[in-house]
Amino acid sequence: xxxxxxxxxxxxxxxxxxxxxxxxxxxxxxxxxxxxxxxxxxxxxxxxxxxxxxxxxxxxxxxxxxxxxxxxxxxxxxxxxxxxxxxxxxxxxxxxxxxxxxxxxxxxxxxxxxxxxxxxxxxxxxxxxxxxxxxxxxxxxxxxxxxxxxxxxxxxxxxxxxxxxxxxxxxxxxxxxxxxxxxxxxxxxxxxxxxxxxxxxxxxxxxxxxxxxxxxxxxxxxxxxxxxxxxxxxxxxxxxxxxxxxxxxxxxxxxxxxxxxxxxxxxxxxxxxxxxxxxxxxxxxxxxxxxxxxxxxxxxxxxxxxxxxxxxxxxxxxxxxxxxxxxxxxxxxxxxxxxxxxxxxxxxxxxxxxxxxxxxxxxxxxxxxxxxxxxxxxxxxxxxxxxxxxxxxxxxxxxxxxx
Length: 403
Fold this sequence. Notes:
Radius of gyration: 24 Å
Distance between the termini: 18 Å
Mean pLDDT: 94
Largest sheet: 6 strands, mixed
Structural class: alpha+beta
Number of strands: 16
Shape: elongated
Strand order of the largest sheet: 1-2-6-3-7-14
Helix content: 25-40%
């Protein structure tokens, strides 16, 4: 139904939800300029996770862009980061909510990578892919649906935008859990992959700090009186590195070790910082157990030392289930009609907020933002022509849920 405009839906009722989805897809045609203008406004504001003022400015822009009939906005205050945002619609009675999840923070501190730039068919800038582009996709899909039958015709929507995803969502995870409880599906609009592949699996992530304690002594006069914390920690590092199991998708990386004060002093203190990745919740729990066991064994081999292990699982994995595979197929059919790819992505090593929804038992898929490359680098870009079809795919999917 070409030619629809935001003010033309008054009194108009779509005969079927499929027609509503097609009307929304038609409404989006020719609106790339609007979408790009909104994206540029978001990208031009630095919203590094620790830039609270910048994050709040981006949040204010999002609230303006999402000021739609039937969509309420809630600001969830933060004491550490920019405020988190939760948008809700009442939706059609009898239908379970659908959750849409994103984040407004980026990884670039002020001065590192700034501004929005056009480069032929590409658009470059901090967060253009990860993931302000995804937020624009969500926003314009909802605008199209509001203009083509109204959000009240859809399932209840729960849109959550957190401000701390890039540091593991220490606050945002709880905001998400509270907002989307009872949802029947969760779609996450992180960076779109090559071929528009849909993410159904992400590794879980963890972090651990091992602190070795020993006894200082002069290395020449009283070596025998010391207890070498670095030696105990070295034994620990060797043990935990051997827990890596590539066929099972388990990796351990001891990325930083510090300790000691000089070559002529037996060190009484040493610290190792460790990254953990795993594919199943059971593997994550087992890794934490084996870490603590390795610490005990390593210290027992160096009399007078002990090793304390802090940390553990930070994000549960996004695990593929029959329900998430069905969700991928349903969304994928809408993506295909919209001219996009709809295959399944390979296992992804990094975590996202899809892991939070998945751990709640909610079928979840990810990577639905605009197609691009280079997230977390100064080469970050999107293919601008994917903005409209990505929004069309979401609009068609949400309409299909109400049919």
